[in-house]
Amino acid sequence: MVTNTTTKDHKLALLIIDMINDLEFESGDQLLKYALPAAHAIKKMKEKVKAEGFPVIYINDNYGQWQSDFRHLVRHCIDGDSRGKALAELLKPDEDDYFVLKPQFSGFFGTPLNILLEHLGVDTLILTGVAGNMCVQFTANDAYMYHYKLYIPSDCIASADKKENDLAIETMRQVNKADVRPSTDFSLKHF
Amino acid sequence: MVTNTTTKDHKLALLIIDMINDLEFESGDQLLKYALPAAHAIKKMKEKVKAEGFPVIYINDNYGQWQSDFRHLVRHCIDGDSRGKALAELLKPDEDDYFVLKPQFSGFFGTPLNILLEHLGVDTLILTGVAGNMCVQFTANDAYMYHYKLYIPSDCIASADKKENDLAIETMRQVNKADVRPSTDFSLKHF
Amino acid sequence: MVTNTTTKDHKLALLIIDMINDLEFESGDQLLKYALPAAHAIKKMKEKVKAEGFPVIYINDNYGQWQSDFRHLVRHCIDGDSRGKALAELLKPDEDDYFVLKPQFSGFFGTPLNILLEHLGVDTLILTGVAGNMCVQFTANDAYMYHYKLYIPSDCIASADKKENDLAIETMRQVNKADVRPSTDFSLKHF
Amino acid sequence: MVTNTTTKDHKLALLIIDMINDLEFESGDQLLKYALPAAHAIKKMKEKVKAEGFPVIYINDNYGQWQSDFRHLVRHCIDGDSRGKALAELLKPDEDDYFVLKPQFSGFFGTPLNILLEHLGVDTLILTGVAGNMCVQFTANDAYMYHYKLYIPSDCIASADKKENDLAIETMRQVNKADVRPSTDFSLKHF
Fold it and tell me: How many A×B Cβ pairs under 8 Å?
């Protein structure tokens, strides 16, 4: 059962969606092209967020591997020499990072994510990761319905298709009322 | 995303609730007394179930340790020389066993359990574990509302208090329409 | 979409579970015997709660009648001269009372109840109604997992069987940490 | 509790989203322009679907009116002489139509919709209504994660902005694998 630790009231959390990813699927190549610069931007964002003591949560597809741990997936991507190796190395989770395995596109669907966020006292989410028009947007939609404020830095989001990525970001700005300014403009003073 | 593997239509699944447990809490001692014989019965049940190719799912409290893996928890219980070491040794998960970490009493609350069960094509659950009047009963209630048929072998359920355990089993028989015959009566022909 | 009206921060809500009920089922007769005095106690509780401006929420089974409104159900129970007529007359909903139709035992399962409670700013629930060992207990379990504080006045709860009702109340006291003192002891100063 | 009536295995259901709507909000005027021809197309679709005995489900925003019934909302739109009167008259629910009130954009979020669809034995949804880039798309996303097959006839969907509507339809075609051919091409033989 959820214990009431001193982790309450973090207010802000950084979500890193599907970046621990072997990219071994069609269009994985194409996605990598855009995901790599996003990974660099997310890495910097992660440093800023952790410097202030805010939590970082990896949201990851379980790829139908219901018997696997997240740490196992990290090793698979790095040691397995997969297409996504560079991403996993850049964004290798720390011991104190959180993770949530999701069976579907949205990070909230069939997962404890909302319970974890309530446990951490979070009301604002920084969404980053891939793919912008799929898992990120589905997660943004649920986040919006749960009343989280959204910051979705445009340079921390990637999709296999640049135009679809831009459309997804524009939709999240309009429909989900997300702040989509690039992470280079980011300052914790916004929050 | 859920891949449609050949794991469909297993029909039956064995759920082992909170038996991977260091029991390092008040009344853990008392619970161990009843959980140990239950662990022996569950071990036999697990063998029968796996011999027929049905899936085994460990449902486990995350103990507020949102950064930990299930395999880590198993090692903690066994190598850490905890009060629950004997239970974890008897019921050590196999590589092909499934697991679901739950943040609350019910195995369905804030977890992908229902999605996993649909993925596996399961319609009947064998519920086993601890504590009978808490996590087992809460899980049984949700399972009932999701329309699963329930087999809750009375000798595979334990609570810190024998009388409360008996009451929980009787309630699950009446309210949740569970078959509660002991596992010694169990035959896959029932299913 | 949820509008942010001035209804926030009510803190306390009274839930009346399945008392709008034609009782036209086996053991309905038996249930009525205990539900009638409970209805009188709930009526008084409702008056006290409304006098302080707290919301009252009727939680009601939809009886598989997915095409019916709640107001229709109220009329059915009263005008239809059903076995449950006296209950519905005593506890006839006011225009400003809330209602939630549930497809299953728990008031939270497949309903907007938790969203409504968050909308109202509620953190403490007074649970009343029938049947104590079924819909009330299932609702209490979910409420507990959602971290609501529970007051379940023993004289406002009824089941077809007196002994089972007493057991359910005792279980909710122990497992769900509910205050179960009778409503005659109730004072809003507790909250 | 869900009763197992003879309504099982309908396979197909028509969902009509937010068309019972007073449109009394900014851009309601603009939305009406596109929603009116959509209403005519939905009306024809409804006739075809009902002729084959498939269920029709109205999914409707509760507009924060947690104390109101759906039938009340219908009367409000028609008798209240609202901007949305023509829509409500065209698509006035029949006695045997189902309805689900939703507190948020998605018809699945905090509602019994999925339970109702399972109860009806539905595996394919025809999504129609407004707004295409908001409630329809959010509902389509959840439907996709629940593994429903989707038919979203492009002429039965409207948004306040034509271009955004087209983008939403194209996204649902690509991401949610929806069939988006116009309803004029519709034949029950597809299913």
Answer: 79
Scanning every residue of chain D, which has its alpha carbon at the shortest distance from the alpha carbon of C4? D64
Query: Cβ atoms within 10 A of the Cβ of C178, count?
Result: 23
| Digit-coded pLDDT (tens) for B114-138 | 999 999 999 999 999 999 999 999 9
Determine the residue of chain C that is closest to D106 in CA distance: C1
Query: Which subunits count as partners of chain C given 3+ CB pairs below 8 Å?
Result: B, D
Cα A24 to the center of its chain, rounded Å: 19
CA distance A135 to chain D (A): 10
Domain boundaries, chain D: 12-184
Quote ipTM for the complex.
Answer: 0.89
Residue contacts between A and D (CB atoms, under 8 Å): 33
**Residues C7 and C120: beta-carbon distance below 8 Å:** yes
For residue range D125-138, list pLDDT tens digits in order.
Answer: 999 999 999 999 99
Q: CA of C36: how far to CAs of C39, C87, C159, in Å?
A: 5, 6, 11
Positive/negative CA dihedral, B97, B98, B104, B107: negative
User: Which backbone phi and psi does B119 adopt, to 5 degrees?
Assistant: -60, -35
- Angle between helical axes of B162-174 and B137-145 (0-180°, round to 10): 10
Smallest Cα distance from B175 to chain C, Å: 7
CB C25 within 8 A of CB C19: no
Q: Which two tokens stand for residue A32?
A: 């990598």
Give the chain D residue whose CA is nearest to the CA of C58.
D67
Residue ranges of E strands in C18-77: 56-61
Topology of A12-184 in CATH?
Answer: Rossmann fold (3.40.50)
Residues of C engaging D, defined by a Cβ cutoff of 8 Å: 1-3, 5, 61-64, 66-67, 69-72, 95-99, 101-105, 110-112, 114-116, 119
The pTM (predicted TM-score) of the whole model is: 0.91
Say how far apart CA C128 and CA C42 lie, in whole Å. Answer: 7
Q: Which two tokens stand for residue D175?
A: 């991401």
